[in-house]
Amino acid sequence: MKILMFLILFLFIGGFFIISNENIPLNNAENIGLFFELYAGWFDNLLDNGKSISGYFVKMEWLPETGVEE
């Protein structure tokens, strides 16, 4: 439950940063559409970066070398 709450809070904070950094007043449909375009792009980049980091961790050598030649 805590992880879900953290995830929701993270997504809300990301949305608030987009609104404040782009100075988007959400008082008409055009600005709301712009917000959702920017939010979708941010979320897509977030997923792409997560995929890259996961691939990096999967490719890492996690076991120590034993020093025994086969």
Compile the SSE list and pairings.
Layout: H1 2-22, H2 29-59
Helix pairs in contact: 1-2
What does this entry look like structurally?
By secondary structure, this protein is mainly α. It has one domain (2-59). It has helices at 2-22, 29-59. α1 packs across α2. 0% of the residues are buried. The model has no long low-confidence stretch (mean pLDDT 91).
Name a few traits of the molecule.
2 helices, single chain, mainly alpha, 74% helix, 70 residues
Largest sheet: none
Beta-strand residue fraction: under 5%
Describe the global form: elongated
Rg over CA atoms, rounded to whole Å, is: 20 Å
Termini separation (Å)? Answer: 48 Å
Number of strands: 0
Question: What would the average pLDDT be, to the nearest integer?
Answer: 91
> What percentage of residues falls in helices of 4 or more residues?
over 70%
Instruction: Give the class from helix and strand content and strand pairing.
Output: mainly alpha
* H/E element order: HH
| Count of structural domains | 1
Low-confidence parts, pLDDT < 50 over ≥5 residues?
Answer: none
Task: Count helical runs.
Answer: 2
Briefly, what is this?
By secondary structure, this protein is an all-alpha fold. It is 74% helix and 0% strand. It is elongated, with a radius of gyration of 20 Å.
